[in-house]
């Protein structure tokens, strides 16, 4: 798979630069530490305590969680019991997966059953949904046929690439399985027919290739996966494109919808278009916040929010952090200001080219930058293991200015992945922002505590 090789080469090149850049980074960090100390020693030391405690707990946890029947990582089965092909099994062991998570062991027997079963599945962020559907995709490929048979749709370019890279790793011992990305930047010769077995892409491109250029025969697709299914159904543009693709699929096509969240209307619609679906809901949403501690910091203005970030920069860069802003403009402004103050930060928003977006994300993945500033474009699905902190520079709102609780859950789910602990910090600079924060707290029924450096009681309670 050429594209996988290309991605690997790019990453190893970046890794070889790591040592050089790390030196610069540590200089910046040293400087930051001094600045932060000067700015607010109490706040900095509070954050350090929270984070250190969080990191220590994370290390202890995974095996304990596997034994706990209430944990999303609990498993009673081994991968062998799931009857995967030996080459695929070898691939997942090579990735370091020892045992299936709950969504994997619950979904896979149904996904691999004959006759194929449809499914609408919900499981919290970071619990291994990708491997669940990718293993089903790989298992269903018939390599004797040389046309696309499996189609997986993702809402963003980055997520499609990440899913394809995970699929390539799982299929590393199945060289006969061929995969193609249908994303911006990938071209096809109109009039030709694609021969790859699996297509992973974004809806617009797949629609072009299926209906305009006719290089994919959608009538021959036998497995259709909709990742982040709720946003694909609820967002106008994605919705129309997905429905047009869905209409072309044959009646017998196996349909698999996955997401961490589904609201009532979206679930009803999903059930309407996925006939006789098996529905798996592993946790109520509020339970999925158990491994992420949430805080808010009161600020009086945008400048004070910036100051708060400055104060905690030294602490948040113990691991890696993602900072979410409401608009590209704020993300750009924040990144510019932090860079000019000597911090090493990356920025990723929709105004970059796809190549730039991928390069930024690759650098962040290998740790060249410890802080990534972004917008909702990265709120879903992106998996970077070392992210210990998510900061909401702006709280997520819908078009009417109300709390967007689902986006909040997806954003903070960029940390606390696969049994790790995470920390979410919300910066509040107005009564409206406070009201949104309270609405989110009420919705999930989980406390969002004030991070108040003067409150020694709070420091004592951290981690309890
Ligand atoms: N069985 C397993 N054992 C160990 N690690 C696993 C296993 N399954 C998945 N992982 C790892 O867990 C992390 C999270 O998985 P994944 O990205 O699939 O989560 P997700 O449920 O799709 O989350 P989101 O809702 O945010 O998209 C990944 O780094 C993945 O490699």
Write up this protein.
Residues 77-105 form the DEAD-box RNA helicase Q domain. Residues 291-459 form the Helicase C-terminal domain. With 464 residues, the chain is an alpha/beta fold. It has two domains: 38-282, P-loop containing nucleotide triphosphate hydrolases (Rossmann fold, 3-Layer(aba) Sandwich), CATH 3.40.50; 288-463, Rossmann fold, CATH 3.40.50.300. It has 16 helices and 14 strands. A seven-stranded parallel beta sheet has the order 3-4-2-5-6-1-7, with helices on both faces. It starts with a helix and ends with a helix. The structure holds adenosine-5'-triphosphate (ATP). Adenosine-5'-triphosphate (ATP) binds next to helix 5.
CATH topology (level 3) name of the largest domain: Rossmann fold
Q: Strand-residue fraction?
A: 5-15%
| Mean pLDDT reading | 84
User: Number of helical segments?
Assistant: 16
The gross shape turns out to be globular
Low-confidence stretches: 1-39
Placed side by side, the strands forming the largest sheet appear as 3-4-2-5-6-1-7
**Count of extended strands:** 14
What structural class results from the helix and strand content? Answer: alpha/beta
**Whole-number radius of gyration?**
22 Å
Q: What is the domain total for the residues?
A: 2
Q: List SSEs in N-to-C order.
A: HHHHEHEHEEHEHHEHEEHEHEHEEHEHEH
Largest sheet: 7 strands, parallel
Going by CATH, the architecture of the largest domain would be: 3-Layer(aba) Sandwich
Q: What is the distance, rounded to the nearest whole angstrom, between the alpha carbons of the first and last residues?
A: 48 Å
CATH superfamily of the largest domain: P-loop containing nucleotide triphosphate hydrolases
What top-tier CATH class of the largest domain fits best? Alpha Beta
């Amino acid at each position: 798979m050429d594209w996988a090789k290309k991605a690997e080469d790019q990453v190893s090149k970046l890794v070889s630069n790591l040592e050089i850049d790390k030196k610069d980074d540590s200089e910046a960090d040293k400087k930051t530490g001094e600045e932060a100390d000067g700015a607010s020693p109490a706040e900095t030391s509070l954050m350090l305590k929270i984070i250190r405690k969080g990191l220590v707990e994370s290390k202890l946890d995974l095996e304990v969680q596997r034994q706990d029947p209430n944990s999303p990582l609990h498993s009673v089965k081994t991968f062998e019991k799931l009857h995967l092909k030996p080459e695929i099994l070898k691939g997942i062991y090579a990735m370091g997966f020892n045992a299936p998570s709950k969504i994997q062991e619950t979904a896979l027997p149904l996904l691999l059953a004959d006759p194929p079963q449809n499914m609408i599945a919900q499981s919290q962020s970071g619990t291994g949904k990708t491997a669940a559907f990718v293993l089903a995709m790989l298992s269903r490929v018939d390599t004797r046929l040389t046309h696309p048979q499996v189609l997986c749709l993702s809402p963003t370019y980055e997520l499609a690439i990440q899913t394809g890279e995970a699929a390539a790793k799982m299929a590393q011992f199945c060289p006969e399985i061929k995969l193609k990305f249908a994303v911006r930047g990938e071209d096809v010769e109109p009039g030709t027919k694609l021969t790859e077995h699996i297509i992973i892409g974004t809806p617009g491109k797949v629609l072009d290739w299926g209906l305009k250029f006719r290089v994919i025969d959608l009538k021959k697709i036998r497995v259709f996966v909709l990742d982040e299914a709720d946003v694909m159904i609820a967002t106008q543009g994605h919705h129309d494109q997905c429905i047009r693709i869905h209409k072309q699929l044959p009646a017998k096509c196996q349909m698999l919808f996955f997401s961490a969240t589904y609201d009532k209307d979206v679930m009803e619609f999903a059930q309407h278009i996925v006939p006789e679906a098996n529905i798996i809901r592993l946790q109520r949403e509020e339970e999925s916040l158990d491994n992420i501690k949430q805080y808010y910091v009161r600020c009086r203005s945008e400048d004070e929010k910036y100051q708060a970030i400055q104060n905690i920069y030294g602490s948040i860069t113990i691991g890696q952090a993602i900072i979410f802003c409401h608009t590209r403009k704020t993300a750009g402004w924040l990144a510019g200001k932090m860079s000019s103050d000597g911090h090493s930060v990356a920025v990723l928003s929709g105004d970059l080219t796809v190549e730039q977006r991928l390069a930024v994300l690759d650098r962040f993945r290998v740790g060249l930058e410890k802080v990534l500033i972004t917008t909702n474009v990265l709120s879903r699905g992106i998996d970077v293991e070392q992210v210990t902190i998510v900061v909401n520079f702006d709280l997520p709102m819908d078009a009417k200015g109300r709390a967007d609780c689902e986006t909040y859950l997806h954003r903070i789910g960029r940390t606390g992945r696969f049994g790790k602990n995470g920390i979410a910090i919300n910066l509040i600079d107005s009564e409206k922002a406070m009201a949104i924060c309270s609405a989110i707290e009420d919705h999930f029924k989980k406390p969002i505590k004030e991070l108040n450096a003067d409150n020694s009681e709070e420091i004592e309670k951290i981690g309890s």
